Protein backbone atom coordinates (compact mmCIF):
# COMPACT_ATOMS: atom_id res chain seq x y z
CA UNK A 1 0.00 0.00 0.00
CA UNK A 2 2.90 2.36 0.77
CA UNK A 3 4.24 1.86 -2.75
CA UNK A 4 1.02 3.10 -4.32
CA UNK A 5 0.77 6.02 -1.94
CA UNK A 6 4.27 7.24 -2.81
CA UNK A 7 3.53 6.99 -6.51
CA UNK A 8 0.21 8.77 -6.17
CA UNK A 9 1.60 11.71 -4.18
CA UNK A 10 4.81 12.24 -6.11
CA UNK A 11 3.07 13.90 -9.06
CA UNK A 12 1.61 16.49 -6.70
CA UNK A 13 4.86 17.08 -4.82
CA UNK A 14 6.94 17.47 -7.97
CA UNK A 15 5.10 20.65 -8.91
CA UNK A 16 5.25 22.24 -5.45
CA UNK A 17 8.41 21.19 -3.64
CA UNK A 18 11.34 22.25 -5.81
CA UNK A 19 12.42 24.50 -2.96
CA UNK A 20 13.46 21.33 -1.13
CA UNK A 21 15.25 19.66 -4.05
CA UNK A 22 16.02 21.78 -7.12
CA UNK A 23 15.46 20.07 -10.46
CA UNK A 24 18.55 18.42 -11.87
CA UNK A 25 20.93 20.27 -9.53
CA UNK A 26 22.40 19.66 -6.12
CA UNK A 27 19.69 20.77 -3.67
CA UNK A 28 20.42 23.75 -1.43
CA UNK A 29 19.56 21.52 1.52
CA UNK A 30 21.39 18.23 1.92
CA UNK A 31 18.59 16.77 4.06
CA UNK A 32 15.16 17.42 5.56
CA UNK A 33 13.34 15.73 8.44
CA UNK A 34 9.63 15.01 8.09
CA UNK A 35 7.56 15.26 11.27
CA UNK A 36 3.81 14.98 11.82
CA UNK A 37 1.59 17.03 14.08
CA UNK A 38 -0.21 13.88 15.28
CA UNK A 39 -0.81 10.23 14.34
CA UNK A 40 -2.23 9.24 10.95
CA UNK A 41 -1.43 12.45 9.10
CA UNK A 42 0.23 10.48 6.29
CA UNK A 43 3.81 11.32 7.31
CA UNK A 44 5.26 8.12 5.90
CA UNK A 45 3.36 8.53 2.62
CA UNK A 46 4.68 12.08 2.31
CA UNK A 47 8.22 10.91 3.14
CA UNK A 48 8.10 8.24 0.44
CA UNK A 49 6.70 10.76 -2.03
CA UNK A 50 9.53 13.18 -1.24
CA UNK A 51 12.09 10.45 -1.84
CA UNK A 52 10.52 9.65 -5.20
CA UNK A 53 10.34 13.33 -6.15
CA UNK A 54 13.93 14.04 -5.13
CA UNK A 55 15.12 11.01 -7.12
CA UNK A 56 13.42 12.32 -10.25
CA UNK A 57 14.73 15.84 -9.77
CA UNK A 58 18.31 14.73 -9.15
CA UNK A 59 18.37 11.99 -11.81
CA UNK A 60 19.67 14.26 -14.64
CA UNK A 61 22.83 15.01 -12.64
CA UNK A 62 23.21 11.43 -11.38
CA UNK A 63 22.40 12.48 -7.82
CA UNK A 64 21.34 9.93 -5.22
CA UNK A 65 18.75 10.09 -2.45
CA UNK A 66 18.98 8.42 0.94
CA UNK A 67 16.48 7.74 3.69
CA UNK A 68 16.72 7.39 7.44
CA UNK A 69 14.31 6.80 10.30
CA UNK A 70 16.48 7.62 13.34
CA UNK A 71 14.17 6.22 16.00
CA UNK A 72 11.58 3.53 15.38
CA UNK A 73 8.94 1.92 17.56
CA UNK A 74 7.22 -0.74 15.45
CA UNK A 75 9.84 -3.15 14.24
CA UNK A 76 10.46 -6.16 12.03
CA UNK A 77 13.35 -8.63 12.13
CA UNK A 78 15.67 -8.77 9.11
CA UNK A 79 19.03 -10.30 8.30
CA UNK A 80 22.09 -8.14 7.76
CA UNK A 81 25.64 -9.40 7.59
CA UNK A 82 24.57 -12.85 8.72
CA UNK A 83 22.87 -11.49 11.84
CA UNK A 84 19.22 -10.96 12.76
CA UNK A 85 18.53 -7.32 13.63
CA UNK A 86 15.43 -5.32 14.56
CA UNK A 87 14.60 -2.34 12.38
CA UNK A 88 11.67 0.01 12.03
CA UNK A 89 8.99 -1.37 9.71
CA UNK A 90 8.69 1.84 7.66
CA UNK A 91 12.47 1.91 7.22
CA UNK A 92 12.35 -1.68 5.96
CA UNK A 93 9.69 -0.72 3.39
CA UNK A 94 11.66 2.27 2.08
CA UNK A 95 14.95 0.34 2.04
CA UNK A 96 13.37 -2.45 0.01
CA UNK A 97 11.19 -0.41 -2.35
CA UNK A 98 13.85 2.14 -3.31
CA UNK A 99 16.60 -0.54 -3.46
CA UNK A 100 18.71 1.33 -0.94
CA UNK A 101 20.51 -1.88 -0.01
CA UNK A 102 22.79 -1.18 -2.97
CA UNK A 103 24.26 1.81 -1.07
CA UNK A 104 23.01 1.91 2.52
CA UNK A 105 23.03 -0.53 5.41
CA UNK A 106 19.59 -1.06 6.93
CA UNK A 107 21.14 -0.81 10.39
CA UNK A 108 22.09 2.80 9.51
CA UNK A 109 18.72 3.56 7.93
CA UNK A 110 17.08 2.44 11.20
CA UNK A 111 19.77 2.85 13.88
CA UNK A 112 17.62 2.90 17.04
CA UNK A 113 14.46 0.92 17.83
CA UNK A 114 12.57 1.47 21.07
CA UNK A 115 10.76 -1.75 21.94
CA UNK A 116 8.22 -2.67 24.57
CA UNK A 117 9.64 -2.16 28.07
CA UNK A 118 12.62 -0.10 26.92
CA UNK A 119 11.29 3.17 28.33
CA UNK A 120 10.91 1.76 31.85
CA UNK A 121 14.29 0.06 31.60
CA UNK A 122 15.85 3.36 30.55
CA UNK A 123 14.27 5.21 33.48
CA UNK A 124 15.55 2.46 35.79
CA UNK A 125 19.07 3.03 34.43
CA UNK A 126 19.21 -0.39 32.79
CA UNK A 127 19.76 0.64 29.15
CA UNK A 128 23.12 2.37 28.70
CA UNK A 129 22.59 2.26 24.90
CA UNK A 130 19.88 4.90 25.35
CA UNK A 131 21.99 7.19 27.53
CA UNK A 132 22.47 10.64 25.98
CA UNK A 133 26.04 10.25 24.72
CA UNK A 134 25.52 6.75 23.31
CA UNK A 135 22.20 7.76 21.73
CA UNK A 136 23.69 10.80 20.01
CA UNK A 137 26.78 8.91 18.87
CA UNK A 138 24.68 6.22 17.20
CA UNK A 139 22.42 8.78 15.50
CA UNK A 140 25.24 10.92 14.15
CA UNK A 141 27.29 7.93 13.02
CA UNK A 142 24.37 6.47 11.05
CA UNK A 143 23.42 9.84 9.57
CA UNK A 144 27.03 10.46 8.60
CA UNK A 145 27.21 7.16 6.73
CA UNK A 146 23.96 7.84 4.85
CA UNK A 147 24.91 11.44 4.04
CA UNK A 148 28.30 10.34 2.72
CA UNK A 149 26.57 7.97 0.28
CA UNK A 150 23.76 10.34 -0.75
CA UNK A 151 23.34 13.78 -2.30
CA UNK A 152 20.04 14.35 -0.48
CA UNK A 153 18.53 12.57 2.53
CA UNK A 154 14.90 12.32 3.66
CA UNK A 155 14.82 11.72 7.41
CA UNK A 156 11.50 10.52 8.80
CA UNK A 157 10.66 11.20 12.41
CA UNK A 158 8.49 9.09 14.69
CA UNK A 159 5.16 10.87 15.19
CA UNK A 160 5.00 14.50 16.31
CA UNK A 161 7.85 16.76 17.42
CA UNK A 162 7.57 15.79 21.09
CA UNK A 163 7.72 12.01 20.68
CA UNK A 164 10.73 10.62 22.53
CA UNK A 165 10.79 13.28 25.23
CA UNK A 166 10.77 10.66 27.98
CA UNK A 167 14.19 9.55 26.73
CA UNK A 168 15.46 13.11 26.51
CA UNK A 169 15.48 12.83 22.72
CA UNK A 170 12.29 14.12 21.16
CA UNK A 171 12.07 14.41 17.37
CA UNK A 172 12.88 18.11 17.43
CA UNK A 173 16.08 17.47 19.36
CA UNK A 174 17.05 14.73 16.92
CA UNK A 175 16.62 17.16 14.01
CA UNK A 176 18.73 19.79 15.79
CA UNK A 177 21.45 17.27 16.64
CA UNK A 178 21.66 16.18 13.00
CA UNK A 179 21.58 19.77 11.75
CA UNK A 180 18.54 19.02 9.60
CA UNK A 181 15.62 21.35 8.88
CA UNK A 182 12.11 20.11 9.62
CA UNK A 183 9.08 19.77 7.34
CA UNK A 184 5.86 19.53 9.35
CA UNK A 185 2.98 17.43 7.98
CA UNK A 186 -0.55 18.28 9.16
CA UNK A 187 -4.03 17.33 8.01
CA UNK A 188 -6.38 19.67 6.15
CA UNK A 189 -8.22 22.40 8.02
CA UNK A 190 -7.53 25.89 9.33
CA UNK A 191 -8.25 26.47 13.05
CA UNK A 192 -7.50 23.06 14.54
CA UNK A 193 -4.71 22.46 12.04
CA UNK A 194 -3.00 25.71 13.04
CA UNK A 195 -3.42 24.81 16.73
CA UNK A 196 -1.61 21.51 16.14
CA UNK A 197 1.07 23.19 14.06
CA UNK A 198 1.61 25.78 16.81
CA UNK A 199 2.50 23.13 19.38
CA UNK A 200 4.99 21.53 17.00
CA UNK A 201 6.53 24.82 15.92
CA UNK A 202 7.04 25.67 19.62
CA UNK A 203 8.65 22.27 20.27
CA UNK A 204 11.03 22.71 17.33
CA UNK A 205 12.02 26.20 18.38
CA UNK A 206 12.60 25.08 21.96
CA UNK A 207 15.21 22.64 20.64
CA UNK A 208 16.56 25.15 18.06
CA UNK A 209 15.45 22.98 15.14
CA UNK A 210 14.80 25.11 12.06
CA UNK A 211 11.60 24.57 10.07
CA UNK A 212 11.81 24.49 6.26
CA UNK A 213 8.07 24.40 5.61
CA UNK A 214 4.66 22.85 6.09
CA UNK A 215 2.84 20.24 4.00
CA UNK A 216 -0.92 19.87 4.44
CA UNK A 217 -2.06 16.34 3.65
CA UNK A 218 -5.53 14.77 3.22
CA UNK A 219 -7.27 18.05 2.47
CA UNK A 220 -10.78 18.10 0.97
CA UNK A 221 -10.20 18.74 -2.77
CA UNK A 222 -12.61 21.68 -2.79
CA UNK A 223 -10.74 23.32 0.11
CA UNK A 224 -7.13 23.11 -1.12
CA UNK A 225 -6.78 26.76 -2.19
CA UNK A 226 -8.67 28.09 0.84
CA UNK A 227 -6.70 26.03 3.37
CA UNK A 228 -3.37 26.94 1.77
CA UNK A 229 -4.21 30.65 1.74
CA UNK A 230 -5.46 30.90 5.31
CA UNK A 231 -2.78 28.75 6.90
CA UNK A 232 -0.14 30.87 5.21
CA UNK A 233 -1.89 34.02 6.45
CA UNK A 234 -1.92 32.62 9.99
CA UNK A 235 1.75 31.63 9.85
CA UNK A 236 2.68 35.08 8.57
CA UNK A 237 0.52 36.87 11.14
CA UNK A 238 2.37 35.18 14.00
CA UNK A 239 5.80 35.68 12.47
CA UNK A 240 6.68 32.05 11.85
CA UNK A 241 8.56 32.77 8.64
CA UNK A 242 7.55 29.29 7.43
CA UNK A 243 6.04 28.61 3.99
CA UNK A 244 3.15 26.25 3.25
CA UNK A 245 4.92 24.13 0.63
CA UNK A 246 1.98 22.06 -0.59
CA UNK A 247 -1.60 21.06 0.15
CA UNK A 248 -2.28 17.49 -0.93
CA UNK A 249 -5.94 16.59 -1.59
CA UNK A 250 -7.42 13.54 0.04
CA UNK A 251 -7.53 10.49 -2.24
CA UNK A 252 -10.13 7.83 -1.41
CA UNK A 253 -8.29 5.11 -3.31
CA UNK A 254 -5.03 5.46 -1.36
CA UNK A 255 -6.37 3.54 1.65
CA UNK A 256 -7.82 0.71 -0.42
CA UNK A 257 -5.54 -2.31 -0.83
CA UNK A 258 -4.83 -3.62 -4.31
CA UNK A 259 -4.58 -7.29 -5.26
CA UNK A 260 -0.81 -6.78 -5.40
CA UNK A 261 -0.80 -5.50 -1.81
CA UNK A 262 -2.68 -8.61 -0.65
CA UNK A 263 -0.29 -10.90 -2.51
CA UNK A 264 2.69 -9.26 -0.82
CA UNK A 265 0.95 -9.38 2.56
CA UNK A 266 0.22 -13.09 2.48
CA UNK A 267 3.66 -13.93 1.10
CA UNK A 268 5.21 -12.06 3.97
CA UNK A 269 6.84 -9.42 1.74
CA UNK A 270 6.49 -5.67 1.65
Mean pLDDT: 86
Placed side by side, the strands forming the largest sheet appear as 2-7-1-8-9-10
Q: What percentage of amino acids are in beta strands?
A: 15-25%
- Give me the Rg, rounded: 18 Å
* 3D shape: globular
In terms of structural class, how would the helical and strand content be classed?
A: alpha/beta
Number of strands: 10
Which characteristics define this entry?
10 helices; 42% helix; disordered N terminus
Please summarize what this structure is:
42% of the residues lie in helices and 20% in strands. The protein has 10 helices and 10 strands.
Explained architecture:
Residues 1-15 and 22-27 have low confidence and may be disordered. Helices cover 42% and strands 20% of the residues. The N and C termini lie close together (9 Å). The protein has helices at residues 2-16, 43-58, 89-97, 106-109, 118-123, 132-148, 171-178, 191-206, 224-237, 259-267, and strands at residues 31-36, 65-68, 71-72, 75-80, 83-88, 112-113, 152-156, 181-187, 211-219, 244-249. Strand 4 (75-80) and strand 5 (83-88) form a beta hairpin. The protein contains ten helices and ten strands. The longest helix has 17 residues, at 132-148. By secondary structure, it is α/β, with parallel strands linked by helices. Helix 1 (2-16) crosses helix 2 and helix 7 crosses helix 8 (191-206). It has a six-stranded parallel beta sheet, with helices on both faces. It has a two-stranded parallel sheet with strand order 3-6. A two-stranded antiparallel sheet has the order 4-5.
